[in-house]
Amino acid sequence: MATATTPGHPPLPPFTREGAIQKVRLAEDGWNTRDPAKVALAYAMDSRWRNRSGFINGRSEIIAFLSRKWAEELDYRLLKEMWAFAGNRVAVRFAYEWHDDSGHWYRSYGNENWEFNHDGLMVSRYASINDLPILDADRKYHWALGRRPDNHAGLSDLGLEMNPPITASMAPLAPRFGTVE
Description:
By secondary structure, the protein is α+β, with helices and mostly antiparallel strands. The chain has a single domain, classed as Nuclear Transport Factor 2, Chain: A (Roll), CATH 3.10.450. The chain has 4 helices and 6 strands. A hairpin with a 2-residue loop joins strand 3 (74-86) and strand 4 (89-99). Mean pLDDT is 89; it is low at 176-181.
């Protein structure tokens, strides 16, 4: 796939462990700005995404998608963690918290597979994401909107499971999410 790029976006592939971790934190920081145009600059002009069941192609579609996303997912706060890396690819696990316009809170869990060009811009992003309703009291991300503070716990430190069960206390929030345990 030929990619149109802008000047380099370090760290550049092939990634070291430290470079992959830095790339993940830079992505987290960018997404926590909730600025679609700024976030889109980390992607190649013809970047391809699969996000949940949707397909997104190119920066203009990325900007449109993120604009819709953050108009619906209010008070969005994201944590990302590097899972694995090799060459120009990075695998990431993440969780973010948000609420809808009715005040119902969710924690969305997921995994992403990223591929970068030689300029360090992402050319492909494959994201699988599951939403879990949570109570306001169960929220774990309380920093001011924007960049996560350096001293805030990461995903592993918080002990967040991937796809924990919906508990009885969440039953009023869970009609679209299946059986309550």
